[in-house]
Specification:
The protein contains six helices and eleven strands. The chain has about 250 residues and is α+β, with helices and mostly antiparallel strands. It has two domains: about 5-135, Glucose Permease (Domain IIA); about 150-245, no CATH class. Strands 1, 2, 3, 5, 6, 7, 8, 10 and 11 form a nine-stranded antiparallel sheet that branches. Strands 4-9 form a two-stranded antiparallel ribbon. The protein starts with a strand and ends with a helix. Bound molecules: zinc ion (ZN).
């Protein structure tokens, strides 16, 4: 089944608008599928391009992946581009690539039954990530301020009125409050959470306005989805979303 995803032109394929032919495992009947398979419009064979700037850490051929390239992104995440055509790889290990740079040509090498691009994203520890938010541009690979977690804890402790020691534990959790578009939607904690989610790459947050409105709810839902939490857009007092935010 082909599913068209709009507005992702020039992300990982140079010309074609992308069709998903096989989706990421959590939305797929093939639950072990670790990436998204894409073909170009009208099945056109297209050049494969880097989704964002980074450093090539792998450029070689394997039996299963075919000719493939791995790029380490600015934030340490790894993007993978599989099944490229023989002799088409344009980059080698150690190369710095820019956004949109051609890596090779879509192909049918390795464990593949037709020309397509298998695009996958992992974090620095190679835990699989859903590539779709990156294709849609709701998440990116921008390196966050390395102190953003610590900043978040200090700021959230301050606005929740607990001891400001930078250590998130039961005392901080105890002081947490429910935040949603209906409850505490102008509480100072909203801005602190907006900043934190933005640092984590959640562009859905939009303007940092301190208001838990439509965008805030959207971002919280996406965060909950990504962390396998109940997806309701509500950060409930002392509950799992708070624990995950605080990393407890
Ligand atoms: Zn695939």
């Amino acid at each position: 089944m082909r599913k068209f995803i709009a507005d992702v032109k020039n992300k990982v394929l140079e010309k074609g608008e992308h069709y998903i032919t096989s989706d990421y495992k959590t939305r797929n009947t093939n639950r072990s599928h670790k990436g998204i398979d894409l073909i170009g419009q009208n099945k056109s064979i297209d050049n494969v391009t880097a989704i964002d700037k980074g450093e090539v850490i792998t450029s070689k051929k394997s039996n299963t992946a075919g000719n493939y390239v791995e790029v380490k992104q600015e934030n340490g995440f790894i993007t993978r581009y599989l099944h490229m055509k023989d002799n088409s790889l344009k980059v080698k290990k150690g190369d710095k690539v820019s956004k949109g740079e051609v890596l090779g040509r879509m192909g049918n090498t390795g464990n593949s039954t037709g020309a397509h691009l298998h695009f996958a994203v992992t974090d620095a520890k190679r835990n699989d990530q859903d590539p779709l938010p990156y294709l849609l541009g709701t998440k990116d690979f921008t390196k966050a301020n390395s102190n953003y977690y610590q900043d978040f804890i200090l700021k959230i402790q301050k606005v929740l009125g607990t001891k400001v020691d930078g250590i998130a534990g039961p005392n901080t959790l105890n002081k947490t409050i429910t935040i949603s578009s209906k409850v505490n939607n102008h509480h100072p904690a909203v801005l602190v959470i907006q900043e934190y989610l933005t640092n984590l790459g959640y562009k859905e947050v939009g303007k940092l306005d301190g208001i838990a409105g439509k965008n805030f709810t959207k971002a919280v839902k996406q965060y909950q989805k990504d962390n396998n939490l109940v997806v309701d857009g509500i950060i409930t007092k002392k509950a799992q979303t708070w624990k995950t935010l605080l990393n407890i």
